[in-house]
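Changelog note: in this version the structure field was regenerated for every chain. One regenerated record is shown below for reference.
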Amino acid sequence: MSQHRHLAAIMFTDIVGYTALMGIDEDKAMGLVHRSHEIQKRLVGEFEGNWLKEMGDGVMCSFPSASDAIYCALEIQEQLSQHQDLKLRIGIHLGEILVVDGDIFSDGVNIASRLQTIAEPGGIYISDSVQKAIRGQSDIQTVYLGEMQLKNVDYGVKTYALRGEGLAPVMNGSAKGLSGRVWAEIKRRNLHGAGLVYISLAGILLSLIPWIPLLKHIQYFLTSSLLFGFIVSMVLAWFFEKSPNGFIRISSPKSWENPYSNMQKKPFTNNAIVLTLMIILLGINAFTIVDNENMAPEGKDSIQRSIAVLPFYNMSGDPEQMYFVDGIQEDILTQLSKNPKLDVKSRTSTLQYRNMEHKNMGEIGMELGVAHILEGSIRRVGNKVRVTAQLIDIQSDSHIWSEAYDRELTDILTVQRELASSIATVLEARLANI
């Protein structure tokens, strides 16, 4: 018994749909096998391969090098593409084999066979050992599929698919239920890089909200827009890539011919950009944390002592009384603004809430960023006026103070100033004790 070991590239081929065809039309199935073997045997010889074994519709061959096996496989698929009813799956693995009396044995034989079974019709799958052997060949392009768990192989096999004109497009996602396929497709399309870039940019923008008044006013709109934008950006990153002719669909034939590297296809998702954005984001948040710690006691008091004075409600229904209604609000604001310990919202900020009974105090407080709101009403009957005022705590949505003032309008300006002063004095005392 003669035996020896040597390194070889093992290629398995198999006709797609042969078993089913045998049950329908045996003569046609046998004709396909004969035609397939005839084409393959001729090409295997041209590429210095060894025709080892025929297994029904399948064939096992060996080649002295990985590139010979691949060029032979590509030529086989190209010639068979002219036969619409004849498609092959091909698997190739490079490893040491044991030859015993002309027959070969090795773990590599099993791997090549299993790679063939999971390949697409018209496709060619290769193992990591083949990929390493041919990665210097610029005319051979591959797609990484992930680390597959192949049947009867007790370790993961990093698997690649050959791509090129005439070859079957590689199926996306986990359509075949192959372990690692989804993650491999995500990495191929650099979806994770696009996600990190978007999340970093969104985080930077949201972190700037406390420092930019405009962003504070559109905070809710901005947040919802960024969430929607994330979905859109992920869809675009999944389906499109950059090429010399602009952006193209990843699943289109042009994608197989795209000469750009994976980084060039997604130019804004390289590691340097992601790292820079994340450093900026961490820097902004670190500065904010330090600033908040330094200002913690004062900042907390400032929030608790913030107040907005809403336009008073004119219960008299007489438009001519609005000058008195607005005057009360303005005088209260003027009095409160003199106290440096209080954070008082301007009249311009609160005018938008005139006659907006449909909004509750919690919503208004959140929008204005205050802890307290003063609201009130004014009713005039003849020469008498009643002014009511109530202070509301936004967090608990409760009244912490209310009062009604009755006055005779002997001198409108004097009454207005006196009422505003009385109310402001009570508010300052209330907020100072918080």
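Spot check on this record: The longest strand covers residues 3-15. The two ends are 98 Å apart (CA to CA).
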